[in-house]
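Dear colleague,

Thank you for sharing your sequence with our group. We've completed the structure prediction you requested, and as agreed, I am returning the results in plain text so they can be pasted directly into your records. Please verify that the sequence below matches your submission; if there's any discrepancy, let me know and we will rerun it promptly.
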Amino acid sequence: MASYLDFEKSIQQIDEDIINAQIKGDTHAVAILKKNLEKEFYKTYKNLSDFQRLQLARHPDRPYALDYIELILNDAYEIHGDRAFKDDPSIVCFMGYLAGKKLVVIGEQKGRGTKDKIARNFGMPHPEGYRKALRIAKLAEKFELPILFLIDTPGAYPGIGAEERGQSEAIAKNLYELSDLKTPTIAIVIGEGGSGGALAIGVADRLAMMKNSVFSVISPEGCAAILWNDPTKSEAATKAMKVTATELKNQGLIDEVIDEPINGAHRNKEQAATAIADYVKKSLEELEKIDKRELIAHRMQKILKLGVFNEKK
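Please find the predicted structure tokens below.
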């Protein structure tokens, strides 16, 4: 059953009318309603606010890492474990083929349905998850395979056990090691990019975001609680933080905004997956022409530019 956000109520009504018309066998009414639905999609999604994009990034029907892996990767083979503690299901790692090219995909998986969400810790990785990601990234480097990172997490897990096993050290080590990886890397924020939990697999030669995704140092609710002692002011915090793909592209913090279907990735997973696959193929064609030492140098320069600004006199 489809889920609808508050601003999607008009779309929900038309969807329900289409179902009723189909039950009655009224094909003429169905055709008219579908045209109305297309118009409503354009009207609803054309000028979304930052807060509405945040809601879409968290939409329960939005495709997750495993959805995209299933759609874009052929002969996919999953790899488990960090070889130190255990396997963390909130980080998934696969080898496979994209358009005939060998590729390693490392993604954060939130889980769908209550049992799966709990099993995957709602997409909040433990230290062993980040160590698994780094192990697979180094394996890809050894065999000269490009890597695609799919970012989608509210943040790294902040529990006592995670801290005891070195959460901050695991994230810091990933930042260091991925910046020096001798193979082409691409990172895409497919939903929610939260704080260090996202950065831990976000250091790459190309960093892109889906149009209705967000990337921030803290959740808007957390920001509102700290600044105003009022989590209900999350909408104002979202606007102030400039967390959307377009805002981050304008600030030079990401390389590209990947367009989603007009009705959102949650309603057209196949088209969204095609957009990701096209971006990855195009980026790899460019990156694989660059010498390894030059690739690392470019990546380092890109990292050093982050946060640079000019003061007005």
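Summary note from our side: The mean pLDDT is 93.

Kind regards,
the structure core
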